[in-house]
UniProtKB/TrEMBL annotation, chain A:
Keyword Transferase listed: yes
Domain of life assignment: Eukaryota
Species of the source: Ziziphus jujuba
UniProt-recorded name of the protein: glutathione transferase
Signal peptide: none
Keyword field: Transferase
Region (Disordered): 1-39
Limits of the GST C-terminal domain: 189-322
Database matches in SUPFAM superfamilies: F-box domain, GST C-terminal domain-like, Thioredoxin-like
UniProtKB/TrEMBL annotation, chain B:
UniProt key word tRNA processing: no
Keywords: Cytoplasm, Transferase
Protein name stated in the entry: Glutathione S-transferase
Lineage of the organism: Eukaryota, Viridiplantae, Streptophyta, Embryophyta, Tracheophyta
Gene that this polypeptide is encoded by: LOC107423437
The UniProt record lists the keyword Transferase: yes
Pfam families, sorted: GST_C_2, GST_N
Reactions it catalyzes: RX + glutathione = an S-substituted glutathione + a halide anion + H(+)
Cellular compartments per GO CC: cytosol
């Protein structure tokens, strides 16, 4: 919505300038200065609109929209429209991280600070050294920022509340990796990239079971438990193998995708009273959770364990309180 | 050294079709091997030990699994012709999102139409139409989801087209009546050789589903 409005504004501005330019050219050719209309168009817009309207117009302008509305040449326009030109200059705000999956699992956007999905995006940004601030400022260009850094439309939110939420966090991370190439999170070789994407998808598709385990009881919970254990076995054997991290010696996008296992899994296990990731059953994966949490960027950007525990306890009580079956 | 490209596939699979369309788009020669899903080959089990599913692309002995991941791989390796994903990162993210959306939403809703009865079926029909309507809205007035060119999202969705007539018969509804623009888009895609030569005839799919329904005991 915001994008089409700002695009419309740009189009109108472009049209207006074009008309002004055409009229100006025509006048210069005719050179007889007739008609009050022509006179107006040649006047200073500040005089015509007045200070208040001009201020309103100027307040909405940012460097990007000015660059886009100037009719210099096609080459100019194509450079001016490139995302890369503008991305490094603006800040990313926490609000820009739209978290459908968290909403889906927790039914509300409460505790966005606790969301492992938002955390992933923060980790990716921090690993690349991209300035990210947790300030809730009311910038006039806020809507533009949201669309710039959240490559997925918010209006899709309504349809995501079905049985399978679409997790954009991994799509956003690939976007981040492509936009800021330093400290790459994906390998450069196409085959390795395909393997990497395979495990990211696995993390997305199979991680679901643990949240079901958290929210349910009885038979449903038992089924979710078995599914989760099966997934852990696969990850330990086929995914991690003998590597320190999924990304090799350094963490990569797959480590980020499985990052929730390093903290959130333990919390769920404690609250539900079900042990999944046991050291003697999954030694390599268990070691990985320890190594992952020691990585500087991760250590600095994990939510507080105790607060997380309290939040999850509350949510589970609510989830069970509303269902008729008892565990 | 020539490239050795093998595709393990199953003819009615809309996932396998995606890979076939991508390979055709790029003009890549490959060996097609039909898998019997009730009796999977040793090669398939070895190449996709995690999921044991088709399609699997084996390029010079190395396996790649998951249809959309394979399509991206094909696009990255044979990057000198017929680009499938856009070059701009923002648009790539959009393309990935919508392809993911197709994967998660279209398949399940469609499947329920021919595997269930009564109220469940009606609910599935409604969900299916809702999902298609969202996609139709996303398409807008563009000739393809990829804009002027046939691209990633187009490939991810068009392969369901051969299943559409079967859904319509079992669901007793007309997709065109609800989503005319989408059907127009599908027909536009079918004008491309890579699509028309890959997608099996709707009647064949219908026959296949009939057999499946008997086996599953749905009548």
């Amino acid at each position: 919505m915001a994008q089409s409005e700002s695009q419309k504004k740009q189009r109108d501005r472009r049209k207006k300038r074009k008309r002004e330019k055409e009229d100006q050219n025509q006048q210069e050719e005719e050179k007889d200065g007739n008609g009050g209309e022509d006179e107006v168009l040649r006047r200073d817009p500040f005089e015509v609109f007045g200070r208040d309207i001009m201020l309103k117009i100027l307040r909405n302008l940012d460097a990007r929209s000015v660059a886009l509305s100037l009719l210099v040449s096609r080459g100019w326009h194509s450079v001016a429209s490139s995302d890369r030109l503008w991305s490094s200059k603006t800040r990313i705000m926490k609000d820009d991280l739209c978290d459908h999956v968290w909403e889906f699992h927790f039914n509300e956007l409460h505790g966005a600070w606790a969301s492992p999905f938002s955390c992933r995006v923060v980790w990716a940004l921090k690993l690349k050294g991209i300035p990210y601030e947790n300030i809730e400022e009311d910038l006039p260009n806020k809507s533009k920022l949201i669309l710039q850094y959240n490559p997925v439309h918010k209006k899709i939110r309504v349809l995501v509340h079905g049985r399978k939420p679409i997790c954009e966090s991994m799509i956003i991370i690939e976007y981040i990796d492509e936009t800021w190439p330093q400290n790459p999170l994906l390998p450069s070789d196409p085959y390795q990239r395909a393997l990497t994407r395979f495990w990211v998808k696995f993390a997305e598709d199979k991680g679901f079971a643990v949240w079901t385990l958290f929210r349910s009881s009885g038979e449903e919970q038992e089924k979710a438990k078995n599914e989760s254990l099966e997934s852990l076995r696969t990850i330990e054997e086929h995914g991690l193998g003998n590597k320190k991290f999924f990304g090799g010696e350094e963490i990569g996008i797959v480590d980020i995708a499985f990052g929730w296992m390093s903290l959130w899994l333990g919390i769920i296990e404690e609250i539900v009273g079900v042990k999944l990731l046991e050291a003697h059953l999954f030694p390599r994966l268990y070691a990985w959770t320890k190594n992952f949490k020691e990585v500087h960027v991760i250590k600095q950007n994990l939510p507080d364990c105790h607060e997380l525990l309290l939040l999850f306890k509350g949510v589970r009580e609510q989830a069970l309180g509303s269902s008729s079956s008892s565990s | 050294m020539a490239d050795e490209v093998i595709l393990l596939d199953f003819w009615p699979s809309m996932f396998g079709m995606r890979v076939r369309v991508a390979l055709a788009e790029k003009g890549i020669k490959y060996e097609y091997r039909e898998e019997d899903l009730r009796n999977k080959s040793q090669l398939l089990l070895k190449m996709n030990p995690v999921h044991k599913k088709i399609p699997v692309l084996i390029h010079n002995g190395k396996p790649i699994c998951e249809s959309l991941i394979i399509v991206q791989y094909i696009d990255e390796v044979w990057n000198d012709r017929a680009p499938i994903l856009p070059s701009d990162p923002y648009q790539r993210a959009q393309a990935r999102f919508w392809a993911d959306f197709v994967d998660k939403k279209v398949h399940d809703a469609g499947r329920k139409i021919w595997t269930t009865k009564g109220e469940e079926k009606e609910a599935a029909k409604k969900e299916f139409i809702d999902v298609l309507k969202v996609l139709e809205e996303q398409l807008g007035d563009k000739p393809y989801f990829g804009g002027d060119h046939f691209g990633f999202v187009d490939i991810s969705l068009i392969t369901y087209y051969s299943w559409f007539s079967a859904y319509e018969i079992f669901g007793e509804f007309s997709i065109e009546a609800h989503c005319p623009k989408l059907i127009a888009w599908a027909k536009r895609c079918l004008q491309k050789k890579s699509v028309s030569e890959t997608l099996p005839d709707g009647k064949k799919i219908h026959g296949f589903i009939n057999d499946m329904r008997k086996k599953l005991g749905v009548e």
